[in-house]
Amino acid sequence: MTVKNNCIALRDAVVIKDLCFSYNNCDKILNGIELTVPKARIYGLLGPSGCGKTTLLKCILGRLKPDSGVISIFGGRPKKCHIPGAGVGYMPQELALYQDFTIGELLTYFGRIFAMNCNEINAKIHELIELLQLPKKNTLIG
Protein backbone atom coordinates (compact mmCIF):
# COMPACT_ATOMS: atom_id res chain seq x y z
CA MET A 1 0.00 0.00 0.00
CA THR A 2 1.15 3.53 -0.69
CA VAL A 3 0.64 6.50 1.57
CA LYS A 4 -0.30 9.90 0.18
CA ASN A 5 -1.28 12.87 2.35
CA ASN A 6 -1.47 10.51 5.37
CA CYS A 7 -4.27 8.54 3.65
CA ILE A 8 -3.74 4.91 2.69
CA ALA A 9 -4.51 4.13 -0.96
CA LEU A 10 -7.14 1.40 -0.64
CA ARG A 11 -9.70 -0.27 -2.88
CA ASP A 12 -12.55 1.80 -1.42
CA ALA A 13 -12.74 5.58 -1.36
CA VAL A 14 -15.38 5.87 1.36
CA VAL A 15 -16.26 3.31 4.03
CA ILE A 16 -18.91 4.02 6.68
CA LYS A 17 -19.64 1.58 9.51
CA ASP A 18 -22.57 1.85 11.96
CA LEU A 19 -22.76 5.65 11.69
CA CYS A 20 -25.18 7.42 14.04
CA PHE A 21 -25.85 11.15 14.32
CA SER A 22 -28.34 13.32 16.17
CA TYR A 23 -28.62 17.06 16.63
CA ASN A 24 -28.36 18.02 20.33
CA ASN A 25 -28.77 14.37 21.41
CA CYS A 26 -32.41 14.38 20.29
CA ASP A 27 -33.96 12.15 17.62
CA LYS A 28 -31.40 10.24 15.59
CA ILE A 29 -31.08 11.62 12.07
CA LEU A 30 -28.68 8.84 11.03
CA ASN A 31 -28.95 5.43 12.67
CA GLY A 32 -26.59 2.57 11.86
CA ILE A 33 -25.59 3.75 8.36
CA GLU A 34 -23.37 1.31 6.43
CA LEU A 35 -21.91 2.46 3.09
CA THR A 36 -18.98 1.55 0.86
CA VAL A 37 -18.04 3.61 -2.21
CA PRO A 38 -15.27 2.07 -4.36
CA LYS A 39 -12.49 4.23 -5.78
CA ALA A 40 -12.95 5.77 -9.25
CA ARG A 41 -16.74 5.83 -9.11
CA ILE A 42 -19.32 8.60 -9.25
CA TYR A 43 -22.21 8.18 -6.83
CA GLY A 44 -25.34 10.16 -6.15
CA LEU A 45 -27.11 10.18 -2.80
CA LEU A 46 -30.87 10.03 -3.29
CA GLY A 47 -33.79 10.10 -0.90
CA PRO A 48 -36.81 12.10 0.18
CA SER A 49 -36.48 15.54 1.70
CA GLY A 50 -35.45 15.42 5.35
CA CYS A 51 -34.15 11.84 5.37
CA GLY A 52 -30.56 12.80 6.31
CA LYS A 53 -28.72 13.04 2.96
CA THR A 54 -27.13 16.42 3.72
CA THR A 55 -26.33 15.38 7.29
CA LEU A 56 -24.59 12.24 6.01
CA LEU A 57 -22.56 14.26 3.50
CA LYS A 58 -21.56 16.76 6.19
CA CYS A 59 -20.32 13.86 8.32
CA ILE A 60 -18.36 12.44 5.37
CA LEU A 61 -16.86 15.88 4.70
CA GLY A 62 -15.86 16.22 8.36
CA ARG A 63 -18.15 19.19 8.97
CA LEU A 64 -20.27 17.31 11.53
CA LYS A 65 -18.99 14.88 14.15
CA PRO A 66 -21.06 11.67 14.36
CA ASP A 67 -22.34 10.39 17.72
CA SER A 68 -20.82 7.00 16.93
CA GLY A 69 -19.57 4.87 14.08
CA VAL A 70 -16.60 5.07 11.73
CA ILE A 71 -16.01 7.07 8.56
CA SER A 72 -12.93 6.25 6.50
CA ILE A 73 -11.84 8.23 3.43
CA PHE A 74 -9.06 6.36 1.63
CA GLY A 75 -8.22 4.80 5.00
CA GLY A 76 -8.06 8.10 6.88
CA ARG A 77 -10.36 10.40 8.78
CA PRO A 78 -12.33 12.94 6.71
CA LYS A 79 -10.61 16.13 7.91
CA LYS A 80 -7.17 14.58 7.54
CA CYS A 81 -7.69 13.65 3.87
CA HIS A 82 -8.43 17.14 2.49
CA ILE A 83 -11.99 16.23 1.52
CA PRO A 84 -13.44 17.52 -0.69
CA GLY A 85 -10.32 17.76 -2.80
CA ALA A 86 -8.36 15.81 -5.36
CA GLY A 87 -9.46 12.44 -3.93
CA VAL A 88 -13.18 12.99 -3.35
CA GLY A 89 -15.34 15.71 -4.86
CA TYR A 90 -18.60 17.09 -3.54
CA MET A 91 -21.22 18.78 -5.70
CA PRO A 92 -24.36 20.09 -4.00
CA GLN A 93 -27.50 19.58 -6.04
CA GLU A 94 -27.99 23.34 -6.44
CA LEU A 95 -24.72 23.57 -8.39
CA ALA A 96 -25.21 20.35 -10.34
CA LEU A 97 -28.45 21.19 -12.11
CA TYR A 98 -28.07 23.42 -15.15
CA GLN A 99 -31.50 24.92 -15.65
CA ASP A 100 -31.21 25.24 -19.46
CA PHE A 101 -30.32 21.56 -19.98
CA THR A 102 -32.73 18.73 -20.56
CA ILE A 103 -32.46 15.68 -18.33
CA GLY A 104 -30.76 13.82 -21.18
CA GLU A 105 -28.29 16.63 -21.87
CA LEU A 106 -27.31 16.89 -18.21
CA LEU A 107 -26.77 13.15 -17.86
CA THR A 108 -24.81 13.12 -21.15
CA TYR A 109 -22.64 15.99 -19.90
CA PHE A 110 -21.68 14.14 -16.72
CA GLY A 111 -21.27 10.87 -18.62
CA ARG A 112 -18.70 12.52 -20.88
CA ILE A 113 -16.83 13.91 -17.87
CA PHE A 114 -16.64 10.31 -16.64
CA ALA A 115 -15.28 9.26 -20.10
CA MET A 116 -18.27 7.07 -20.94
CA ASN A 117 -18.93 6.32 -24.62
CA CYS A 118 -22.26 7.16 -26.31
CA ASN A 119 -23.70 3.66 -25.90
CA GLU A 120 -22.82 3.59 -22.19
CA ILE A 121 -24.30 7.06 -21.69
CA ASN A 122 -27.55 6.20 -23.47
CA ALA A 123 -27.91 2.96 -21.50
CA LYS A 124 -27.25 4.80 -18.22
CA ILE A 125 -29.75 7.55 -19.12
CA HIS A 126 -32.43 4.93 -19.78
CA GLU A 127 -31.55 3.11 -16.55
CA LEU A 128 -31.64 6.27 -14.41
CA ILE A 129 -34.87 7.59 -15.91
CA GLU A 130 -36.54 4.26 -15.16
CA LEU A 131 -34.96 3.76 -11.73
CA LEU A 132 -35.64 7.30 -10.49
CA GLN A 133 -38.97 7.63 -12.32
CA LEU A 134 -37.79 10.82 -14.02
CA PRO A 135 -39.70 12.57 -16.80
CA LYS A 136 -38.67 11.93 -20.42
CA LYS A 137 -35.06 12.74 -21.28
CA ASN A 138 -36.04 15.77 -23.42
CA THR A 139 -37.67 17.49 -20.40
CA LEU A 140 -35.99 20.76 -19.35
CA ILE A 141 -34.62 20.76 -15.83
CA GLY A 142 -35.56 24.38 -15.10
From TrEMBL:
Protein name: ABC transporter domain-containing protein
GO MF, one example: ATP binding
Segments forming domain ABC transporter: 30-136
Protein origin, superkingdom: Eukaryota
InterPro entries (UniProt xref): ABC_transporter-like_ATP-bd, P-loop_NTPase
Pfam families recorded: ABC_tran (PF00005)
PANTHER family named among the record's database cross-references: ABC TRANSPORTER G FAMILY MEMBER 20 ISOFORM X1, ATP-BINDING CASSETTE, SUB-FAMILY H, MEMBER 1
